[in-house]
Amino acid sequence: MKIGFVGTGVMGGAIIKNLMAAGHSLTVFNRTKQKADKLITAGAVWAPTPKAVAAQSDIVFTMVGFPKDVEQVYFSKEGLFAGLHKGATAIDMTTSRPSLATKIAAAGKQHGFNILDAPVSGGDIGAQNATLTIMVGGDEECYRQMIPLFKTIGKTANYFGLAGAGQHAKMANQIMIAGTMTGLTEMLLYTRQAGLDEQKILETLSSGGADNWSMDNYVPRILRDDYTPGFFARHFLKDLRIALEEAAKMGLDLRATNEAKRLYEIMVDIKGLGNQGTQGLINIY
Could you give the residue numbers annotated as active site? Predict the structure, then answer.
């Protein structure tokens, strides 16, 4: 299958490798070409613009940083909509605004393109191991046709409804993650202050009711002083802001999520640590 991929970062690069390992031919684009060099060496074909990716592909995945990047990738003069052929499918895996997903889907329908919003959860480890959780919105028949591809890159893919529903599902995921990240950070601070063995605490909590994915995957990194991003803190802050914007539209006051946003604003906007992984939150304490 001829697949295009726009965005070859930590997550996108790992997904591309899994698609290539399954025998698909990949055409890729990234704003910084150097970040795609290893993929090109491994057999991916470079395209100079998203438009050029679309022109050579039946299905195009996009996974970029921020909603403004998504909008540019789809709607600019050199964007996907300028290159897709009728009947082609575009799947945005960026965590973005539900309203933007709706806008992209409407424009795609107008031009005969199939559009899905399909953000993922699982971080760099999930992307590398093809164990991502994929949350999908858009046309249900298109979703069903894409299930074999989703199974290539993830362990779970669920359909939530029309365009934007996948993004709403991802917001629910990020609200939950916000609590686990603040919890594991303050758990470690308490452990250290009490003079307890951090590794033993991790092993103990992992076998009890406090166990969670964030603790299992990020506490070992913190104990190694490893703050490389499995997921950039600046991207997580973007997600929390979107989640709170959507919650406000629904009349919800998510106080714990708002506090997590405040803490990540200190980390990203004040301390300048946005290129660390989300586990770097402990560094602001």
Answer: 170
